[in-house]
Specification:
Length: about 425
């Protein structure tokens, strides 16, 4: 039986899709693209913005049109939020953010009963749903989901309601999974979650304890954290960053706004002074670290002057890259009560353009600092006489020679052009 998996969400969704793929392959199913008429189509949906919900609905409709007789399964945040609507437009099985590990059981049940299945749970008091990924096709980096849920309740965000309470994978199970992935050839592990820095909360271990444990694996060369909040970069973490060379020279730290007024309205847990002070502590430890961020523009109360403050703060921090999103109202969030202070859509679009332009400038300036630098890359793709891989500070470099995927190559960055960053192999 043929299946197709479509992932519309975050790195946590990607990990879950890899796990589901592994389970289906173990049952003898074969993966294929949507246009090759699979009998099963699995869509791991996203609900972080209105556009994400719309894309989730679009993919379900497309799957139903393309494969009229297929079993269509909708999983994830949009499924958790809009189960009835997704059933109406073509989904046969709707699972929210629990029981994804049991997907093959639901598939078997559907093919026996031929009746639609809906399983949406209350997520306010759950244990971590453990998944154990045995291998991945990509032998360079592997994503490992160590945490789920969020209790920040930022005023713009629906995800705490869709993902539920904070919960963590057992540290021994996480270590065992990572050890298995490393033994199968992965040299880089990306620790990921909805609120990764909260890992271990309520337990007798935390994120740093996990990092220390997996750092003892000799074949593991890099540990990357998908995203971490500025409030979670405590002294224990900073000391580990100082002492542990396996932690990548790159941190993704969401800012969301450079205006103290807007940060307060967003219900973020810091102000710009706290954020900047912490960045300076990080750079005192690692001067050349790449720091990327997320930014929401056009949030309620963001006047032209508050937006100007954000642009000035971005420059002061000196991010490497900024992932920018226009504010998207999610019904049921606190931001819904701020309607009298909404920003015009046209203004939002203009502000997004300005941030993207600034981001491109900052990224180029950061890359230029490394021309002539000698750095290792882990090769990710190799074809047509070229190899491509990331440095540990997340610069994607192309070298004019084919080397095995997953191999570590010492390179020198030589130039930057329209196609990206170029390098050459060195001994």
């Amino acid at each position: 039986m043929k299946y197709c998996i479509i992932n519309l969400g975050c790195k946590v969704n990607s990990y879950e899709c890899d796990f589901i793929r592994e389970k289906l392959n173990e049952k003898g199913y074969t993966e294929c693209p949507l246009d090759k008429m699979p009998e099963i189509v699995i869509i791991n949906t996203c609900s972080v913005t209105n556009q994400s919900d719309a894309k989730s609905r679009h993919m379900i409709r497309l799957a139903r049109r393309t494969t009229p007789n297929a079993l269509i399964i909708a999983l994830g945040c949009s499924a958790q939020n809009h189960k009835e609507e997704l059933l109406e437009i073509g989904a046969n099985i709707v699972l929210g953010n629990k029981d994804k590990s049991k997907i093959t059981d639901y598939i078997d049940k559907y093919f026996i009963d031929h009746a639609n299945i809906v399983k949406i749970y209350d997520l306010t008091n759950l244990e971590f749903e453990s998944m154990f990924l045995k291998s991945e096709n990509n032998k360079t980096r592997a994503f490992v989901k160590i945490q789920d849920g969020c209790d920040n309740f930022c005023s713009y965000c629906i995800i705490p309601y869709m993902r539920g309470c904070i919960r963590s994978k057992d540290i021994d199970l996480a270590t065992s999974e990572i050890e298995s992935l490393v033994s199968s050839g992965h040299k880089e592990i990306v620790l990921t979650g909805i609120h990764t820095g909260s890992y271990g909360r309520g337990k007798d271990y935390d994120l740093v304890d996990l990092i220390k444990k997996i750092s003892k694996l000799p074949a593991l060369k890099r540990i990357r954290i998908s995203s971490i909040e500025i409030t979670e970069l405590n002294d224990k973490f900073l000391n580990e960053l100082k002492d542990n060379p396996k932690i990548c020279n790159h941190l993704h730290i969401p800012l969301q706004s450079g205006s103290d007024l807007v940060l307060e309205k967003m219900n973020r847990k810091y102000d710009t002074k706290f954020f900047l002070d912490k960045i300076r502590q990080i750079r005192a430890i690692r001067p050349d670290i790449s720091i990327t961020t997320d930014l929401i523009v056009g949030f309620p109360y963001e006047t032209d002057n508050e937006f100007k403050k954000t642009l000035e703060f971005i420059k002061k921090v000196g991010f490497t890259k900024i992932h920018t999103f226009p504010f998207s109202l999610r019904n049921g969030t606190k931001a819904e009560e701020m309607k009298d202070h909404f920003v015009d859509e046209k203004v939002k679009k203009e502000r997004v353009k300005k941030v993207i332009s600034l981001s491109n400038e900052l990224e180029l300036n950061y890359y230029k600092k490394f021309i002539g630098a000698k750095l290792p890359i882990i090769v990710e793709t190799s074809k047509d006489g070229r190899s491509v891989g990331h440095t540990d500070n997340y610069i994607l470099v192309t070298i004019p020679i084919e080397k095995p995927s997953g191999s570590i190559q010492n390179i020198m960055i030589t130039s930057i052009d329209e196609s990206g960053v170029n390098g050459k192999l060195i001994s």
